[in-house]
Specification:
The protein is of the alpha/beta class. 48% of the residues lie in helices and 12% in strands. Strands 2-1-3-4-5-6 form a six-stranded parallel sheet, sandwiched between helices. Helix 8 crosses helix 11 and helix 9 packs across helix 10.
């Protein structure tokens, strides 16, 4: 995405919500909202003509819901589409898991602070995943406290990872971006991205969010060192601007 503005299409059945998102994202020089739509069929036409990098989709989108739309969109997506971000008024663990299974790479609440919207876009456009900070904490807590997990009893899938892939796996579990993992392991970012792709294939998951969920479900990492986006951005950003950290 270097040197390009992030092209975004906003899909929400509420006109005031679309307008509000446009206003928030319009403050970012790196972002261009190239279209919006109020339902699935209209959105497909807009997306086809505008070729966005990221599509933000309301979870309650008519006629069949935002998650079904996400699946259909990804089945016919173009090479330009980096990912879909699900936006929702109220969070539920079930909705989040369904969104991940539908292939979404981002998940954000409508009442999230303005700077987190642009952070979400940058993360997804760069190939990373994004969860709003408050949601991240809930997910980590839920999956590390599941009854019956045994950290010493690793699944067969993890035995398929080589040493480098296992290091990358642990970095994802800690909430690190690709760039941070690369710096930690003293390798190139492209090497990390290649490892992520191999891990996804070996674990049979869809994206790095599901990789993290696997790690935390198995108790392979503690929620305490994981930085939510909310906590990590605030101390480092200039007033009125999000921290421009992408994986």
């Amino acid at each position: 995405m270097t040197g390009q503005r992030i092209r975004v299409v906003v899909v929400d059945h509420q006109e005031f919500a679309r307008a509000g998102i446009r206003v928030v994202l319009g403050r970012e020089q790196e972002v261009a909202v190239v279209g919006d739509a109020e339902n699935g069929p209209e959105a497909l036409d807009v997306i086809s003509s505008q070729q966005p990098h990221v599509v933000m989709v309301d979870s309650a989108l008519p006629p069949f819901g935002g998650l079904d739309f996400c699946r259909k969109l990804l089945e016919r997506s173009s090479a330009s589409l980096a990912g879909v971000i699900i936006i929702t008024e109220e969070h539920s663990d079930e909705l989040l898991l369904r969104a991940v299974r539908a292939g979404a790479r981002g998940y954000i609440l409508k009442n999230s602070p303005a700077w987190s919207w642009s952070t979400a876009l940058r993360s997804v456009a760069s190939g990373d995943a994004f969860l709003a900070g408050s949601v991240t904490s809930r997910v980590f807590t839920r999956f590390t406290l599941l009854p019956g997990y045994d950290p010493s009893n690793l699944p067969k899938e993890l035995s398929m990872l080589n040493d480098r892939e296992h290091q990358v796996f642990k970095g994802i579990a800690k909430g690190l971006f690709n760039r941070e993992i690369a710096q930690l392991l003293a390798v190139s970012e492209s090497t990390v991205k290649a490892c992520v792709s191999k891990i996804i294939g070996k674990l049979g998951v869809r994206n790095r969010v599901e990789i993290a969920l696997v790690a935390f479900r198995l108790g392979l990492a503690s929620p305490s060192p994981v930085r939510s986006v909310d906590a990590s951005c605030r101390p480092h950003r200039k007033p009125g601007r999000p921290r421009q950290e992408i994986g």
